[in-house]
Amino acid sequence: MVKVLIVEDDPMARKLLEIFIKDSENYELVNSIESAAMAEFYCLTNPVDVILMDVCTAMDSNGLEAAEKIKSKFPAIKVIIITSQPECSFIDRAHSIGVDSFWYKEAEAEKILEVLDRTMAGESVYPDSTLSLKIGEAFSEEFSERELEILRELINGETDAAIANKLHLSLRTVKGYIQDMRLKTGFRNRTELAVRVRESGLVINDHKNKEE
After folding, report:
1. 84 and 11 in one domain?
2. 112 exposed, middle or buried (CB, 10 Å; 0-12, 13-18, 19+)?
3. Whether residues 116 and 138 fall in one domain
4. Nearest to 77 by CA among 38, 102, 48
5. CA-based angle 62:70:15, to the nearest 5?
6. Is residue 210's pLDDT more than 50?
7. In-domain check, residue 125
8. Is the pTM of this model over 0.85?
9. Rounded to whole angstroms, how far apart are CA atoms 34 and 202?
10. Alpha-carbon gap, residue 77 to 160, rounded angstroms
11. Which of 27, 34, 107, 170 could form a disulfide with 9 if both were Cys (CB 3.0 to 4.6 A apart)?
């Protein structure tokens, strides 16, 4: 039996994953924990074959950061990131740190078990693209990489001048990007743009994680 560790802080999502694993024929649930911060320690003291792990977990612990540490110490352990967050950078970050598979949360056991089966067979399973979101009158795929960079700073409450300084752009360029994004989304001002983007989850405040 393949030993599965679940790392998920949402009680309903965690319970659903537990049911999927317990009802399966090939997988054994060894533990179900709330924080990615405890996953590495658990792997040090217990046998684990595969981890199903969310990105945003309890104790402000990031599943991608935990996955990177686990893959470096225990390369034989498979790590599958599962998330409902549409944050556009997660897939690229997962690829770069060697996460075996990445999938968006679903309520059907068959799909999660299929991803597990394929991953344990040596396949790296990733979605073809990030989730498509409607941001005002625009879709998330209409935003350029530079616009996403600016949005990430904007939702953190940075001024145009601060954004320009951090991204090494002119103030006029930053204002131009924000104006273009307001026009494509139909939002009245930069505050509404920032609030709606933050609510959508397209980009998140990950300054803390990047600085650690």
Report:
1. yes
2. buried
3. no
4. 48
5. 60
6. no
7. no
8. no
9. 24
10. 44
11. 34
Average pLDDT over residues 202-209: 63
Please name which of 120, 99, 116, 119 lies closest in space to residue 108, comparing C-alpha atoms. Answer: 116
Whether 194 maps to a domain, the answer reads: yes
In a domain, 58, yes or no: yes
State the burial class of residue 60 (Cβ atoms within 10 Å of its Cβ: 0-12, 13-18, 19+).
Answer: exposed
Q: Write out the DSSP string of the chain.
A: -EEEEEE---HHHHHHHHHHHHT-SSEEEEEEES-GGGHHHHHHHS--SEEEE-SEEGGGEEHHHHHHHHHHH-TTSEEEEEES---TTHHHHHHHHT-SEEEE--S-HHHHHHHHHHHHTT-----SSPPP-EETTEEGGGS-HHHHHHHHHHTTT--HHHHHHHHT--HHHHHHHHHHHHHHHT-SSHHHHHHHHHHHTSS---HHHHH-
Predicted confidence (pLDDT) per residue in 59-113, tens digit: 989 999 999 999 999 999 999 999 988 787 899 899 999 999 999 987 788 999 9
The helix-helix angle for 171-185 and 160-167 (nearest 10°) equals 110
